[in-house]
Specification:
Structural class: alpha+beta
CATH architecture: Beta Barrel
Number of domains: 1
Largest sheet: 6 strands, antiparallel
Oligomer: single chain
Number of strands: 9
């Protein structure tokens, strides 16, 4: 504070405004830094196994737009936010439909494992999600 004035009392100069606009425009152009931008987008990822065991129900993951994850669990569709930069993997809260089916136990395993994943790797037609506790989900890209 100078002579009884706060910084809020002063008028911003053109250099300050230009610098602020530059910072904001760079942030807006940054784009998607999630697994989608590193080979995960434009694919329909089908779950093959969890922790080395075959996953016999149908479960998919897609990245429909920057910062989003969606798919089909064994019984329900789901979607949510995903903002961790590659190779990190973290979903926000997932919203899912609430339909019952014979594969609810498999669905619970899928959502539990997906929520625990912290790293991602995409290589060709394979995507592997894993965490520091040696849990792993293996997906294959399919049409």
């Amino acid at each position: 504070m100078l002579q009884g004035h706060s910084i809020c009392d002063s008028k911003p100069n053109m250099k300050t405004i230009a610098a602020l606009l530059t910072v904001l425009s760079i942030a807006a152009c940054r784009g998607d830094e999630t697994v989608a931008a590193y080979g995960g987008a434009d694919q329909n990822w089908h779950l093959l196994e969890i922790d080395g065991a075959p996953f016999n129900a149908r479960a998919t993951v897609t990245f429909p737009e920057p910062g989003k994850i969606a798919g089909q669990a064994p019984c329900n569709t789901y979607s949510g936010a995903m903002t961790a930069p590659y190779p990190w993997f973290e979903t926000g809260p997932l919203a899912a439909t609430r339909m019952a089916c014979d594969d609810l136990a498999a669905e619970n395993r899928f959502f539990e494992a997906l929520g625990e994943m912290t790293q991602s790797e995409v290589s060709g037609g394979a995507m592997i999600l894993r965490n520091e506790n040696d849990r792993e989900m293996v997906f294959e890209a399919r049409d």
